[in-house]
Amino acid sequence: MRILFSIYIGTLVALVLFSYGFVDPNFPYRLGGLLPAVVLEHKYLATAVYCVLLISMYFSYLSFMKKAEQKKLSAGTIWKLIGATTAILIPSYPAFSYDIFNYIATARVLFTYHENPYIVMPIELPVEPMLSFMHAANKTALYGISWVVLSGIPQGVSFGSILAAVLAFKVFIALFYLGLCFLIYNVTKKSTYALVFFALNPLVVIETLVSSHNDVVMMGFALFSFYLLTRRLYIGSVTALLFSIGVKFATGFLLPVYGYVFYRQVWGKSVPYKRVYFISALLMLGIFLLSPLREELYSWYFIWPLTFASLCSDRKVLRNGMIALSLGLLLRFAPYIATREWFGITPTIKLMVTPAPLALYLLWNKVLHR
Amino acid sequence: MNRTFCVIILATFLYLLPVAHIHTVTAYTLPYPSYMPGHTLYTPRILWDQVMEWWHFGSISKTKYHLALSDRYLVEAVTLLEYKQYLLAVSALSHSNTHFISSVLYARDVVDEQKDKGLQATILKEAGKEHTRVLTVQAETFVENITWSAEHEDPVTLELPFLLRQSLIIRSYANTI
Lengths: 370, 177
Known about the structure:
The structure holds two protein chains of two kinds. Chain A is mainly α. Chain A has helices spanning 2-19, 35-41, 43-69, 75-89, 99-111, 145-150, 152-158, 162-187, 192-199, 202-210, 215-230, 234-248, 255-266, 273-290, 303-309, 316-331, 334-339, 346-353, 356-368. Chain A is globular. In chain B, strands 1-2 form a two-stranded antiparallel sheet. In chain B, helix 3 (59-82) runs parallel beside helix 5 (119-141). Chain B is flat, with a radius of gyration of 22 Å.
């Protein structure tokens, strides 16, 4: 067990160091020293390091899952692991996505410049120092009003410093991550397996604690709304759901399920929650798979179905299939590290690596059960 | 004597040489005509504009908001003039002027607040040029006052030339930012 913990913690520390290899050259602070230059110089080595880190994380993850299934991992230990994961990864640089800078820029447009971020693009404020390393400066706010308002909290405590803002947003999102883990733990009646399935999933860990995407915020409110529904706190439940939809809109597709549960609760009928969560997981998976129609299959969107899948983690094929797919989604970043561009051969490699782990799992599963 | 004669001939030739008229092509484009008075959605559109005024907070947003409305009402006025709906055209042109003035005032706020490096002012100046081009054409067309006689109402004299001159002066305010 100690070896496993050492491998896991060591991998996280290595991930933090690796993340500083992707510091934007226009970032006002020289973070990482020579590491960005080294990562850029030795692209294939960096890709190999990334893949090794992923393999290590998944090895640890599957080991923890097995131990949780065998009840060899106590809740206290798991929470310590989650706490350690959060504490170690908060100081990491948001290496694999620029979304956090978009959050900060949107918050600055509203709270610093007092302009409507749905009308004024950051590029229309050329005095803004963040423009030099933002990647969506020519877009108005991409998120719902709930997130824009919420982002005032970390923006407020950053006092205008970009470095402090990055840290504040990371801590803010990490708090929602911990809250969502706590919710999952409670909704599943303190299932350590469900907790490990979600909280230590490398995709959730990387996309939430390293890249700091706000999907856990959206899913946190969504799951909280279902939780309040089970407690018959209808006003709070509806408010939480509306807040969730106001973050990123995807949870709007849960309305039919929510309506069904609401109706059965109000009329005093029993609610088959396991089936509800399973259908919610499928709905979120469907929306996730349809996301390329809008833009692209982003790996952090997979947090949507993973949240509900953790509530029905006894469904083996769904559970294992999702783990395999999460690996494939994280591998999508590898061709970018190797080529340092999103065009050319990168889209083709991304298309190949994404379904590969899932295909291998399904094949292995078929062979095993022949 | 010969040298002087050559200089005179050259000067005369250069003076008479046809010079290509340089048309100032602004990058600014006015919108297509929207709903006209009488359309079912015209009044809801006005109500929506009032709601949008609240939504457009901040000096840059307000500059954009008022400029967009000024553009729309100008196009509406020009369309109404083509259809000889002079009373409605005068109203639309007055609205356009009001919104353009508001846009200029908010653009000055943007400069005072140092939010941009003259971006909104540049856009407003381009808009002013395009408005001026359109209004100049109308001013050349409507040189006399118009008496508007609505059914069962007293005739009204519409001082269209004066209003058009006033509109042109208002557009020149964009150059004062």
